[in-house]
Specification:
- It contains 7 helices and 10 strands.
- It is α+β, with helices and mostly antiparallel strands.
- The chain has 2 domains: about 180 residues, 2-Layer Sandwich (Nucleotidyltransferase, domain 5), CATH 3.30.420.10; about 55 residues, no CATH class.
- Helix 3 links the parallel strand 6 and strand 7.
- The longest helix is centred in the middle third of the chain and has 25 residues.
- It starts with a strand and ends in a 13-residue tail after the last strand.
- About 25% of the residues are buried.
C-alpha cells in the first residue's frame, strides 16, 4: 500500500480594501488570485522528503509533479487536506487540463481531531503541543510569505525548511491518531493471499481477541491491535453458530 504524506503552502490573494475591518471583498476588488508556492511530500516507509516549488521547478512542472504523486498514491495523509490542500491541487489540475489523478483514499488528520476530540485549538501546532511531539518550525509570519512571493532567496530557503518540517511532524501525529481513525483505508486489502490477518489501520498481525462487537441485530468477533490500539472486527457475523474467520478484518 502506497501512502503519501503531503502538505502545500500557498500565496494569499491580493485585493483592494477601504478599511481594516472589511469582512467581505467583492470579486471586482480582487487584484490577484492566490497560487501554490510549494509543497513537500514523503512516502510512508521512506526517509527522503521531497520538495517542489515555484522558484525551483516553475508552476507547470510543480503541478505536474503533484499530479504524478497523487496518481501513484493509494492513500494520502494531510492535515485539513480535504478542506484545502487537495481541492487547491484539483483546481490546478483542472486549469492545466490534466484531469483527475487515479482515485486514492484521503486520510485527513484534521477531520479525526474535529470529530473525536474537544481541544482548545484544532491546529496541527496545538495538537503537537498537547501530545508533546516535535513541532512545526517557528518563522517570522506573513513576512515569510511575502518574501517568497517577491523572490527573496533567504525566505524561500526558510519556506522549504518549514514546509518539509510539516510533513516530518505529521508522521508522529498520524501514529498517535491511528487508533482513532475509523475511516482508514483497510491495509488488509493489499495483503497477499494466505497471509495472516492484519490490523486494517496499521498492518500489524499482533491482534488479541476482545469479545464481540454487537449491533442492533448482529454480533461480530472483535480484536484489539497491540500495534496501534485500534479495534478491528471480523467481516462475518457470528450469529447462528457461524464462527468462520475471514482473512480481512474491518
Amino acid at each position: 500500500m502506497r501512502i503519501l504524506k503531503l502538505d502545500i503552502e500557498a500565496a494569499p490573494a491580493k485585493a483592494y480594501i477601504w478599511g481594516l475591518k472589511t469582512r467581505y471583498v467583492p470579486l471586482s476588488q480582487v487584484a490577484e488570485d492566490g497560487y501554490i508556492l510549494c509543497f513537500s511530500y514523503q512516502w510512508e516507509g521512506e526517509d527522503e522528503v521531497g520538495f517542489f516549488s515555484l522558484w525551483d521547478h516553475g508552476h507547470e512542472n510543480m503541478i505536474d509533479g503533484a499530479w504524478e504523486l497523487l496518481d501513484e498514491a493509494d492513500a494520502v495523509i494531510t492535515y485539513n487536506g480535504n478542506g484545502y490542500d487537495l481541492p487547491r491541487l484539483n483546481s490546478e489540475f483542472l486549469v492545466q487540463r490534466l484531469g483527475p489523478p487515479s482515485p486514492y483514499h484521503s486520510i485527513d488528520l484534521y477531520q479525526t481531531v474535529s470529530r473525536k476530540f474537544k481541544v482548545l485549538s484544532k491546529s496541527m501546532k496545538h495538537m503537537l503541543d498537547v501530545l508533546s511531539l516535535e513541532n512545526k518550525l517557528e518563522h517570522k509570519g506573513m513576512e515569510l510569505w511575502t518574501g517568497c512571493m517577491s523572490g527573496n532567496k533567504d525566505d524561500q530557503a526558510v519556506m522549504e525548511e518549514y514546509n518539509i518540517q510539516d510533513v516530518i511532524v505529521m508522521e508522529d501525529l498520524y501514529e498517535e491518531l491511528l487508533p482513532w481513525i475509523d475511516n482508514h483505508p483497510n491495509r488488509g486489502l493489499w495483503m497477499e493471499p494466505g497471509e495472516d490477518p492484519v490490523c486494517p489501520n496499521c498492518g500489524s498481525t499482533d491482534l488479541r481477541f476482545k469479545g464481540y462487537k454487537r449491533t442492533r441485530v448482529l454480533s461480530y468477533m472483535q480484536y484489539r491491535c497491540r500495534g496501534c490500539g485500534f479495534y478491528p472486527r471480523e467481516r462475518f457475523t457470528v450469529d447462528k453458530g457461524d464462527m468462520r474467520r475471514t482473512e480481512i478484518l474491518t
